[in-house]
């Protein structure tokens, strides 16, 4: 494992995107003598605001009012047979006048169908080729294939989708009073409508119903491209079209665990006994409380199989005592450890909430539906080796050979400095890092102190540059623009990034790192950082991604030199946000919606369903 000099990470690799770079510029009206005035990129000075004006602020991304996809009319003008001007004889293709009459295909050109651009393109490609037969009509009636497809669409809720998005009724045709033209118009309209619904379902179940990037500036995904071109041909050739449609849903282990949990909760919704644990103060080891019985009952119900196996003797021997005894304490400590809580055996409201499941069945179902949608934004196969950071759980997990090999507590961004939701690849571990101070921190937190005391950064040992030239903090005009000012903290025991950082370069300047603020990991609610992910055991994570030992990582740190080491092979990292997600045993766990993001996903669901219904 060879070490290479680390790139000097300054302000520009820490800024949170181009929008914030433009927001971060401030100006002054007069420049006090003896100060270095930051200059523009062309060398000209930057001037403007009164020094007495209120201090500027850099704000983070925002949440949006969700804008749904625009549905367009499908171009049906090419769907008629051009050779016979759209007329197809109302007899069987073989010319047998005694055969069941067939629908007149020319009425396809008169149908009105709206769909998104991708679905419209697939419809036009299939029906624009007159060699392709109708999929859902045989003779002059709906075929069994259509009935199977409609049944599969009606079951969309089982995979976290809304059946209302794909609902379609078969046309009513009065056999006693046949009107061939009216019948054929109804059947060809149904043919295109059902094809549009099937295509929309396939697209939705692969990539998700909603575009995550339209929810907020904190969501950052390359939306999946779904190849819809072969879908109708495969549906027509499939001996069981319902199974084919259902097969397009994700089948990764995490998604299947969410799906199974959703089915279980819907089957028991309203019938499940809810365990109540009533504590008006902390329950500590050695205490006596009648609630111990409910605590044991809750752990028997909501504890993982591993927990119940490891403590089978304790659970079997428990006889309803009120004593919070050492064996019950050990059981609770292991439960707390599994759930990312402080494993001290002290039972407070956070532990109680985890024990009783935390949510009602209805709220769990909602979290599952949101989680299944969000799972579609990520690759269906997360890979055999990857790092998963789940912000609501305040945990990071390292997987290798398809198994979780390491987990640890993390600190993520506070509500005003939220961590983004995206995926990337780990490339580098930097030891004894510099901390390039983000522009948002310079302006929001340092600037007020610098205006009172320009020596502030010099006294703290920070390095300051203006247009790439090292200067004293006291010489900078802190009433001028900070656009060309960079501030960084050299490696030290007090460095905000601690001993190391793990980099997956991205436009949000998010990475994993050590921290000198170890006490934060003792808290249950750990949304406390400026947006990056602080690791409770950074040496173990660095060793895992580098494929080396903790001892070797310690040697790299002990050199005291700032240097970077590339990982042998890039590793996917999922900086995710799931309020429902399965643990290593496949048991779905539920977490608080720390940023309130699930509500925005629900609003996007509602907007999508309303828009699709209104534009049919």
Tags for this entry?
globular; 32% helix; L,D-transpeptidase catalytic domain-like; 8-stranded mixed barrel; single chain; 18 helices; alpha+beta; 616 residues
What does this entry look like structurally?
This protein has 616 residues and is α+β, with helices and mostly antiparallel strands. It has three domains: 72-252, no CATH class; 292-355, no CATH class; 382-578, Beta Barrel (L,D-transpeptidase catalytic domain-like). Helix content is 32%, strand content 14%. The chain has 18 helices and 20 strands. The protein has helices spanning 17-23, 117-127, 144-154, 180-207, 231-237, 241-247, 253-268, 292-302, 305-310, 312-317, 326-338, 349-355, 361-375, 439-452, 456-460, 538-546, 550-558, 597-614, and strands spanning 4-5, 72-73, 114-115, 137-138, 141-142, 386-390, 395-400, 403-413, 422-431, 435-436, 463-466, 469-471, 485-489, 500-503, 512-513, 527-529, 533-535, 563-576, 580-582, 588-590. Strands 6-7-8-17-15-14-9-18 form an eight-stranded mixed β-barrel. Strands 10-13-11-12 form a four-stranded antiparallel β-sheet, with no helix packed on it. Strand 19 (580-582) and strand 20 (588-590) form a beta hairpin. The two termini are 60 Å apart. The relative contact order is 0.15. Mean pLDDT is 86; it is low at 1-49 and 83-100.
């Amino acid at each position: 494992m060879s070490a290479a000099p680390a790139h000097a990470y300054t302000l520009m690799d820490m800024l949170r995107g181009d929008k914030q770079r433009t927001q971060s510029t401030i100006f002054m009206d007069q420049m006090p003598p003896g100060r270095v005035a930051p200059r523009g990129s062309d060398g000209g000075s930057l001037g403007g605001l009164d020094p007495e004006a209120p201090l500027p602020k850099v704000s983070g991304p925002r949440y949006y009012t969700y804008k749904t996809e625009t549905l367009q009319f499908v171009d049906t003008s090419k769907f008629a047979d051009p050779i016979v001007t759209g007329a197809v004889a109302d007899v069987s293709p073989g010319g047998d006048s005694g055969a069941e009459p067939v629908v007149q295909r020319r009425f396809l050109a008169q149908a009105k169908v709206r769909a998104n651009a991708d679905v419209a393109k697939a419809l036009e490609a299939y029906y624009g080729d007159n060699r392709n037969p109708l999929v859902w009509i045989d003779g002059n009636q709906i075929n069994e294939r259509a009935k199977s497809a409609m049944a599969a669409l009606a079951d969309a809720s089982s995979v976290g989708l809304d059946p209302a998005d794909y609902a379609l009724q078969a046309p009513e045709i009065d056999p006693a009073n046949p009107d061939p033209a009216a019948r054929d118009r109804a059947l060809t309209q149904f043919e295109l409508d059902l094809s549009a619904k099937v295509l929309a379902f396939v697209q939705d179940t692969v990539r998700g119903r909603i575009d995550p990037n339209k929810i907020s500036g904190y969501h950052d995904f390359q939306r999946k491209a779904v190849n819809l071109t072969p879908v109708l041909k495969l549906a027509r050739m499939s001996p069981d079209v319902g199974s084919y449609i259902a097969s397009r849903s994700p089948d990764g282990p995490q998604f299947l665990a969410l799906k199974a949990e959703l089915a279980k909760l819907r089957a028991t919704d309203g019938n499940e006994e809810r365990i109540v644990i009533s504590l008006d103060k902390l329950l500590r080891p050695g205490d006596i409380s009648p609630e111990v019985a409910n605590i044991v009952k809750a752990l028997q119900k909501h504890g993982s199989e591993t927990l119940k196996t490891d403590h089978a003797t304790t659970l079997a021997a428990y006889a309803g005592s009120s004593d919070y005894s050492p064996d019950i304490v050990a059981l609770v400590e292991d439960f707390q450890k599994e759930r990312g809580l402080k494993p001290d055996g002290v039972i407070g409201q956070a532990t109680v909430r985890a024990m009783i499941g935390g949510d009602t069945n209805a709220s769990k179902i909602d979290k599952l539906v949101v989680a299944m949608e969000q799972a579609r934004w990520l690759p269906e196969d997360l890979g055999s080796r990857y790092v998963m950071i789940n912000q609501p759980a305040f945990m990071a997990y390292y997987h290798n050979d398809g198994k979780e090999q390491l987990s640890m507590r993390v600190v993520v961004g506070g509500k005003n400095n939220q961590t983004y939701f995206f995926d990337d690849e780990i490339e580098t571990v930097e030891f004894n890092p510099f901390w390039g101070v983000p522009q948002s921190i310079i302006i929001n937190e340092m600037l007020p102190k610098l205006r009172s005391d320009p020596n502030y950064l010099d006294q703290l040992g920070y390095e300051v540059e203006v247009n790439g030239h090292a200067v004293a903090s006291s010489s900078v005009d802190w009433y001028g623009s900070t656009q060309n000012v960079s501030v960084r903290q050299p490696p030290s025991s007090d460095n905000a990034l601690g001993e190391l950082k793990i980099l997956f370069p991205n436009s949000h300047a998010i990475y994993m790192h050590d921290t000198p603020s170890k006490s934060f990991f003792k808290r249950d609610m750990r949304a406390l950082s400026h947006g990056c992910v602080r690791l409770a055991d950074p040496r173990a994570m660095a060793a895992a991604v580098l494929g080396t030992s903790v001892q070797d990582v310690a040697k790299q740190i002990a050199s005291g030199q700032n240097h970077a080491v590339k990982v042998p092979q890039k590793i996917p990292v999922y900086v995710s946000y799931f309020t429902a997600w399965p643990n290593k045993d496949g048991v779905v766990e539920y977490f608080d919606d720390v940023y309130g993001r699930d509500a925005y996903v629900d609003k996007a669901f509602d907007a999508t369903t309303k828009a699709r219904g209104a534009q049919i």
